[in-house]
Give the backbone structure.
Amino acid sequence: MFRKILIANRGEIALRVIWACKELGIKTVAVHSEADSDSLHVRFADESVCIGPSPSHQSYLKIPSIIAAAEISNADAIHPGYGFLSENPEFAEVCRVCNITFIGPPPEIISLMGNKSKAKNVMKEAGVPVLPGSSDPVNDYEEALSLAKEIGFPVILKAAAGGGGKGMRVVYSEKEMEQAFKMAKSEAGASFSDDSIYIEKYLENPRHIEVQILGDKFGNIIHLNERECSIQRRHQKLLEEAPSSALTPLLRKEICETAVKGAKYVGYQNAGTMEFLYEKNKFYFMEMNTRIQVEHPVTENITGIDLIKAQILSAANEKMIYNQDDIKIIGHSIECRINAEDPYRFIPCPGKISTFHIAGGPGVRVDTAAYSGYVVSPYYDSLIAKLIVRAHTRQDCISRMKRALESFIIEGVKTNIPLHLKILETKNFKEGKLTTKFLEEILPQK
Ligand code: ADP
């Protein structure tokens, strides 16, 4: 087992990893930028190292500084959290060369799954259903157009190296293609330094359903059931739940077993997520995330498994202690991402939180690194807390989330709590009638 883990991240996920390490008796090293010197992850880690100025590319994304911090502090493993370097194969490779264990899958798998177009091809080979589309990057708009005619409109153009909802363009007709292709390509180049674009059929009313995978280094891979993440704005998740109200037990078994089949095909290790789009009782692989996800707590709530501890144990060469049959679904869980932003215009609203009083009571979990007096920095994302509830039924979960949101006091910055309340009170949400268009449909029309 590791003696000391460095956490290459900040905010709530850095704290979440620290909690798991403390329970496992592992010492922790926090790294932080100049803006984060008063952060809770710095306070609660056993040691901390300042790795540079506030902008991420000069600190949390700077591989040499993070490796130097691990070497100075004698850490034997690095947990990357989510975002930042968590899906960077070069970082995982540098860790390997420096004899520091990267807590995640090997760089080869991160690299393979990081290219969404290649990942789709591999999954197709594995017998996992994928949406019709190009199997290689598309070179120019004429090629995109001829493919689109084959597939049938609407289609979606996506950045092969994409993430965070960037570099995607939906194209409904021939005449939109040229401009959409150019925009998607330039956005992809600017955001990911890789402008390869691929194309696939666009589903108009899908649900986003993803399966949590867990693997050890001995070829054992299980699933921890699914999460529903259809409540999104601009292709980014806002509220997640587990299990999905769309699936019958039979479909659940099918999608989860398909995810395991795909993960086994690539020799997956550690925690990962297979994302699917689901429409008209059919599901299609979309992409795999080779890291822990923001929404992992809802899975922890319904399965009772601590995913961060499981990641650490797997990286430390421990054999999986669970069989697939040990994994049960107990009750229901919902997570609301509480962001510092204007709730209807989605504009980040950084600033000082004057009062911060978290919700509590039965079945409530809050993952956060904020406190009264905390400054939400403009340098990083606007997530200030994840409010997660559990209850026996979905309906009880909704009532519990409502009262938790109502008793969560955050003053000094605007938050999206009013929007979450509105979502929970919407008839279609209560009835579990969700699609990725849900939020668009309930927002006030401009
Ligand atoms: P990212 O990695 O940028 O988050 P994803 O490929 O995971 O991008 O897609 C994010 C979201 O975009 C999905 O949850 C879904 O809402 C939408 N989306 C992606 N591909 C399609 C598609 N083929 N049809 C309909 N919606 C899609």
